[in-house]
Amino acid sequence: MKVIKNILGSIYHKILFFIFKYRALSKKNIIIDNTVKLYYNKENLNISNDVVIGAFTVIYAINSGHSSKKGLLKIGKNTSIGEFNNIRAAGGEITIGNNCLISQFVTIVASNHNIKKGENINGQGWDETRTDVFIGDDVWIGANCVILPGVKIANGSVIAAGSVVTKDVQDNSIMIGVPAKKIKDR
């Protein structure tokens, strides 16, 4: 029974992928690797022209029953998203600007779960006190970075590999570390 479920699930995912890819490619120059996992509602995902999404990236752009906030993902034109990334726009909005580079193994989350004592974590809804991620134009996010909810990364900024962004980043800043701190202007 489990094997049949897995086969049907795989077929379902492939059908959804081809439907999405057809819609996405009706725009100009959108390249989405066929290993990308997309979980989305049509109204929750907006990909501009000239976008590349690399292999084995997982994208959630859905409305969640755990949140009153709509999950929404917007990707600007001429943006490249590398391989093995995790982008989760559920319970909040993620906006990625134009002309951005997102390297490999980057995690971007629009919301986190509540962690109230005395309740099972898995049953708790989203923490709506700190949501959404905004990434401006001309931003480079290095490999293995984590971008946490409530963060705004302003235009022209660079986030060094392995950094964890917990606070807003000013225009043209170069950030590094855990948590990420500004080391200089670009």
UniProtKB/TrEMBL annotation:
Record field: transmembrane: none
Family annotation (Gene3D superfamilies): Hexapeptide repeat proteins
Q: Which InterPro entries match?
A: Hexapep (IPR001451), Hexapeptide_acetyltransf (IPR051159), Trimer_LpxA-like_sf (IPR011004)
Protein origin, superkingdom = Bacteria
**Which Pfam families does its entry note?**
Hexapep (PF00132)
- What protein is this chain from? Acyltransferase
Source organism per UniProt: Flavobacterium sp. CFS9
